[in-house]
Structure formats: C-alpha cells, structure tokens
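Predict the assembly for these two chains.
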Amino acid sequence: GQSLEQPSEVTAVEGAIVQINCTYQTSGFYGLSWYQQHDGGAPTFLSYNALDGLEETGRFSSFLSRSDSYGYLLLQELQMKDSASYFCAVDTLQGGKLIFGQGTELSVKP
Amino acid sequence: SQTIHQWPATLVQPVGSPLSLECTVEGTSNPNLYWYRQAAGRGLQLLFYSVGIGQISSEVPQNLSASRPQDRQFILSSKKLLLSDSGFYLCAWSAGQGREKLFFGSGTQLSVL
C-alpha cells in the first residue's frame, strides 16, 4: 500500500521555529510537496523537493531525504497567520497521481 | 493568468438525489485535472484524475463518476447520493509535466441528509 505519515497536530508560540515531519511509503516517487490549508479554504502550494537537500522560500524551508523516505517543512519566525493545516504530498509518477498525507494542524499561540 | 472555477460553494442534497459538480480552468491548455474529497479534519483523498479529454482514472470504488467533456472542464457526478458522500470536494489542476504543483479551486461543501 501507499502511505504518508505526519503528526496530527503541533503547537508553537509566535516567533518560534517549528518542524513538521513527513515519512512516506509509496510504490513510486518523483517528488515531495507541501501545502497549506486554512480553515474552510483550499490548499495552497508551499514548496516542492525532487532532490535531496533543503529548499528555502522566505520563512519556509523544505527538506528531503530520498534514501530515508523522509522530508520536513520548517517554519521560522512563526506568525499567528501560520495557524493552519499543513499537508505533505507525494508525486508517484503514476499517470498524474498525487497522494496526500492526513495533515498536521499547526496552532500558533501568542 | 490561470484560474480555476468550482461551483457551487455549498450544497445540501437529500439521500438518493443526483449530483453534478463542475470545475473549469482558464488560461492554460491540456491541464491534468483532479477531484479530491476531504472529510472534516482529515486529509485529501484522490477520487479521480484526468490527463486528457475522455481519459479518466478512478482511484477508489465509490458511488461517484467523473467526466471530462472538454479540455478544461471536469465534472463530478452521482446518480444517487449516499450519506457517506458528504464532504468537502476540491477540484485541482496542474500543468502537463508539473504535477508537483497543484492549483485548487475554492471547494464545494456537500452535505447529504
């Protein structure tokens, strides 16, 4: 089967750094994506890793280790508006199939 | 620029009634199109995806079907809704070889009563 594991919820304070992990087991792998979803809204794309290493986009960074089937999203200088659900997703290269994890709900406290 | 339209935003339907949700994309050609469903507080479950007109792949056996009558139109249908069909339905598109980046519509909250 195919599965993605990420923590169900994380809590942090404003200004802090938080890391959301994702481990995956899929029958094919092309890359790992991260999406943010606020309550009642649609998911929006944050980052994508196809190669090992760290990708940085402003306050957000994403890391991938293909050999460990593992990645993480790092959020720095947390703001209240970062409170949302974060999903990792694997592109399995199977004709367009993108598989999502169950999501991590991040709560940022003052 | 590319945009994706999905409607309606909310829908309340009785059990056994039919369903038709429509999604259209503007500003791009030959997109990959997707239908996802999200239960409350849960992840996104891929229902259908399409890489071209008339080409539909179904991910899970279910009470739903999808069609792509035009390049940038994707329709989700059911002949008879079940209670378990309730959820947040999201349409999405990606560029042909850019599956890593999906653009989602605003979603349809479907309640089957």
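Chain B touches chain A through 25 residues (CB under 8 Å). Chain B has a mean pLDDT of 91.
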